[in-house]
Amino acid sequence: MPLMPDRAAPSPAPPVLKRATLVDVAAHAGTSTISVSRALRRPAMVSEGLRARIMQAVQELGYVSDTAASALASRRSGVIGVLIPSVADAVFGDLLDGLYDAVAATPYTLQLGNTRSDAATEERLIRIHLGQRPAGLILAGIDQSSAARAALERAECPVVQIMDLTENPVDMQVGFSHHAAARTATGHLLARGYHAPAFIGARIDPRTERRLAGYREAMAEAGLAHRARVVTTPKPSSVGMGSTLFRRLRQYAPDADAVLCNDDDLALGALFAAQRAGLSVGREIGICGFNDLDVMAAAFPALTSVRTPRREIGAAALSMIATRLWDGDVAPPIRDLGFKLMVRASTERV
Amino acid sequence: MPLMPDRAAPSPAPPVLKRATLVDVAAHAGTSTISVSRALRRPAMVSEGLRARIMQAVQELGYVSDTAASALASRRSGVIGVLIPSVADAVFGDLLDGLYDAVAATPYTLQLGNTRSDAATEERLIRIHLGQRPAGLILAGIDQSSAARAALERAECPVVQIMDLTENPVDMQVGFSHHAAARTATGHLLARGYHAPAFIGARIDPRTERRLAGYREAMAEAGLAHRARVVTTPKPSSVGMGSTLFRRLRQYAPDADAVLCNDDDLALGALFAAQRAGLSVGREIGICGFNDLDVMAAAFPALTSVRTPRREIGAAALSMIATRLWDGDVAPPIRDLGFKLMVRASTERV
DNA sequence: TTGAAAGCGCTAACAG
DNA sequence: CTGTTAGCGCTTTCAA
Question: What is the pTM of this model?
Answer without folding.
Answer: 0.89
